[in-house]
Amino acid sequence: MLYVSLNCQYLAGARSMHNSRNYVFSTGRRLLCAARSRLANGFAIDECSFHRAAVQLSRNRKHETNVSALFKPVQVQANVDDDDVGSELVGKLEKSELLKILNKFAQRREIKTLCSENGLDSYLQQQAFGSFRRYCIEAENLPVDVHITFSDIMHGAGHIDDIFPYFLRHAKTMFPHLDCMDDLKKISDLRQPANWYTNARAITRKIVFHAGPTNSGKTYHAMERYLSAKSGVYCGPLKLLATEVYNKANERGTPCDLVTGEERKFGISENSPANHVACTVEMTSVNTPYEVAVIDEIQQIRDQQRGWAWTRAFLGLIADEVHVCGEAGALELLEKICETTGETVEVRRYDRLTELTVENSALGSLDNVMPGDCIVCFSKHDIYTVSREIEARGKEVAVIYGGLPPGTKLAQAAKFNDPANSCKVMVATDAIGMGLNLSIRRIIFYSLVKPTMNERGEREIDTISVSSALQIAGRAGRYRTEWEHGYVTAFRSEDLQTLQRILSQTPEPLKKAGLHPTADQIELYAYHLPNSSLSNLMDIFVNLCTVDDSLYFMCNIEDFKFLAEMINHVPLPLRARYVFCCAPINRKMPFVCSMFLKIARQYSRNEPITFDFIKRNCGWPFKLPRTILDLVHLESVFDVMDLYLWLSYRFMDLFPEAANVREAQKELDEIIQQGVFQITRLLKNTEAGQESETPNFQMRRMTHIKEPRLPSSSRGRLTERLLAQGLLTPGMLSELRKEWDAQQHTQPQAIASSKDTQDVATDSDDDDSYAANTKKTRRKRKK
Q: Region Disordered: start and end of each range (predicted)?
């Protein structure tokens, strides 16, 4: 039934698609055809394969969006003239006759043709006709020219088509884009992004591509050229990598500055910039000339969220030599892009320096874990489960996952790498794929499926890509470490064959590079569409933009839109609103989102966001976490401080205490480190139901978020997921428990009562209503 249903879904979608967009269904068609072939040959089909096919098809149907629906109508103001001059000249109009004329006008085929010629499709026509009809019928007096035209038609002295100029004037007032559609399309013409960077096009750049797998020395050779140059810039994907380059350069006597979204450090002094810079790729300057530029992990140019930053750096860097490092699959795309810039690519290929062996047997049991092993999981829940089970076997564990602060990651890596340390096993997510130097003997994939969120915020499960698997597996057997021969295997025997197949492949060639609307482009849109929200402007831009589909794609803007909609009601200048929405925030963390909104409100009132503001809202000072819930909350607070520092470099006047926040963040990093060191104890405390010392957090209750009541003894799967994912904070859980306990004492009488008590309020804000209903119940019993 599942197969039939999906096949029907595919056929229905195929019938409805436009011929010019046939290609967007190719992936879904290929998956379904493969499934059909396997069924015909008697093979079993896993439901995940069908899921992927259906997901691909549903994604593709997104392309059929009606662009006109994105333009929000503007309210047309009624005629402001107090005197009804039209009635004085030709007499009053009969509303019933007027309505007949308007309905006849809207149904005329000639009028619909004229509308189409003037940019009004059927969707806009329907809205414009309805608005124009209401405007004419409900107005106390119409403009003189409109009034006289209607009067002439009623008396046979005019034709019904004479109304069209006035209707079109009304429609253009409703939809301002009708007068500027050509301008909007010109602004969003992204077919030649190379021409945006005139300074880079004015010089002849030497492009060198260092292609090779993990542990091949490709980045080392690029960095040697960087350090020997008179000036240079390193563009990395992570703060950790940029910081590592900053430290190494200064240790080797090459003064180097560090520039990340949240931090600035100087190799010489603040007033004397160094000639070398290490930065995260988003912070790359395309206005400063360098002798050598290094762009690391170039394959990230295909990333749906951040790919635009690599595209911008590759096209815009003003450097005599641009050294690009990454997997060989990026070469073809880079060569095609260089054809548009008139540049050529010099390729230097590297082989892996150490041997990597895929084992013939799976791990099978955690009893078989050995020193130097790293078990890679793709969810926090698995991280917690595996860590606890290994430590239950008497082995110390280092833990690394994406949500940890950089200092904590480095501390865990140092603990694992230290030969004198008793910790010989690591449990980590794919965060180890880049940015950390680890001495790993064997990589063990705990699972091969990774949960992700698609552009609509829906949870999806899919097998990891070849590129991702090779990147992670390549971390085993690092050159010049204790374990130079690396090994790879799976935890489950049923995954081993799939893993061997994935690792035997080469990464697919990159097809396209990411692009993203700039602040200047959105400002131009806002000038033409002053009544549109920022989220709406982004939607319109993405749907109107013209992109060279053979080389580029528009990056996912869902995170940007999420933040734009969150602060839509906060009065901010457009440029400031755009900057706020570019902030690096994990929208799945409610506390961080809540603080983002509070900070935006404070900024809109032109009030400084001080360190006291942060302490008051985050609950400073902190103590060591006692449960996983506490740890997750502290990680959220760390992200809030990151947000403050990020904004402090863009709005210095209203974020004046970056130094104090940074010192507090360092202290918080140490607290989190201590929590991670005893993560097993935190897990036990969480399962035992021990409450955090909530007075230490002094959290204000987020009254705008309604949470379900949970009994204090509840420890089901839902509760565990909420704890592990950080969807509840210590203060919130404490409030929920108190409310539940209070309800348990007062509810028995209400439960025993009749239907009249079913509407008893349960929120703490409705205690008066609850008491009143309870009294009514008691009076009924007395009767």
A: 740-783
Q: Do 124 and 233 lie in a common domain?
A: no
153 and 230, same domain (yes or no): no
Query: Cα separation of 309 and 281, whole Å?
Result: 6
**Terminal Cα distance for the chain, rounded:** 59
Q: Are 337 and 207 in contact (CB under 8 A)?
A: no
Per the structure, the count of domains in the chain is 4
The token pair at 465 is 């890509």
| 318-326/356-358 β-pairing | unpaired
Query: How many C-beta atoms surround the C-beta of residue 552 within 10 A?
Result: 23
**pLDDT value of residue 686:** 83
Contact partners, residue 697, CB within 8 Å, separation at least 6: 619, 622, 633, 729, 730, 731
The token pair at 226 is 């960087």
What pLDDT shows up at residue 180?
A: 92
- Pick from 531, 661, 678: nearest CA to 608: 661
User: Number of C-alpha atoms within 13 angstroms, CB side, residue 347?
Assistant: 13
Count other Cβ atoms within 10 Å, centred on residue 461.
14
Distance set, CA 348 to CA 158, 180, 207 (Å)? 78, 49, 11
261 inside domain: yes
Q: pLDDT per residue over 648-705, tens digit each?
A: 999 999 999 999 999 999 999 999 999 999 888 888 888 777 544 433 433 333 333 3
Distance CA 644, CA 668 (A): 15
Say which residues have a Cβ less than 8 Å from residue 119's Cβ, sequence separation at least 6. 178, 181
Give dist(CA 236, CA 242) in Å, integer: 6
Query: What CATH number did the domain enclosing 478 receive?
Result: 3.40.50.300
221 with 143, same domain: the answer is no
Distances (CA, A) of 255 to 207, 235, 467: 25, 16, 35
Domain boundary among 478, 504, 530: 504
The whole-angstrom separation of Cα 524 and Cα 183 is: 9
Ordered strands of the 318-326 beta sheet: 264-265, 256-259, 276-280, 232-236, 289-295, 318-326, 206-211, 345-349
Report if residue 126 sits inside a domain. yes
Whole-angstrom distance, CA of residue 45 vs CA of residue 55:
17
Query: Is 531 in the same domain as 441?
Result: no
Distance, CA of 319 to CA of 289 (rounded, Å)? 6
Which string of b and e fits 159-175 if b means at least 16 CB within 10 Å?
ebeebbebbbebbbbbb
Residue type, 142: L
Region 711-728: mean pLDDT is 48
C-beta separation of 235 from 313 below 8 A = yes
List, in sequence order, every residue forming a beta bridge with 259; answer none if it has no partner: 264, 279
Q: What tens digit of pLDDT does each residue of 260-270 get?
A: 999 999 999 98
User: Which phi and psi (to 5°) does residue 436 adopt?
Assistant: -130, 135
Say if residue 15's pLDDT is above 80.
no
Q: Is 462 exposed, middle or buried (0-12, 13-18, 19+ CB in 10 A)?
A: middle
Same-domain status, 533 and 662: yes
Q: How many angstroms separate the CA atoms of 160 and 768, rounded?
A: 63
Buried b (16+ CB within 10 A) or exposed e, 654-676: bbebbeebeebbeebbebbbebb
**Stretch 698-719: mean pLDDT, rounded?**
37
Torsion angles phi and psi, residue 358, rounded to 5: -90, 120
Neighbours of 88 (CB within 10 A): 12
Q: How far is Cα of residue 68 from the mean position of the Cα atoms in its chain?
A: 26
**Is residue 350 within 8 Å of residue 210, measured between CB atoms?**
yes
Task: Identify the domain containing residue 480 by its residue range.
Answer: 356-504
Q: Which of 665, 658, 613 is nearest to 639 (CA)?
A: 665
